[in-house]
Amino acid sequence: MTPHRSNMDWILNDLAHSVPYVRHVIVLSADGLRIAQYGADPDTADRLAAACAGLQSLAAAVGQEFPDGDGSMRLVVIEVDGGYFYLMSAGVGAYLAVLADEGVDAGLVSHQMRDLIDRIGEHLATPPRNPGVLA
Question: In CATH, what number does 6-12+22-105 get?
Fold first, then answer.
């Protein structure tokens, strides 16, 4: 079963409504499991969360090529026909993803994502799993 913090959905709703053209907002763990969502049905949110795990891994691999950096992924933006996809580090083991239609203000999306993370980042952190312990 996918972890889901339904009490976080309202703040994602706030982000979506503060930026015109935002379609989906998802919080996910580093291993691609959906934690919270806005605007997407659970199957869509789960697919996007799984894809995000691959993207953050790819971004971290590219980040290793910068000798003065620590290799951590901060932000990935993908522009596709029809819109934009944003993936931002949101705390230890957590990420915030936004899918937006064309016409979105790219700077406003990034600003609002950073603002959200600043406000609730510590609540987004997902501790590493211990495979030997059952919840």
Answer: 3.30.450.30
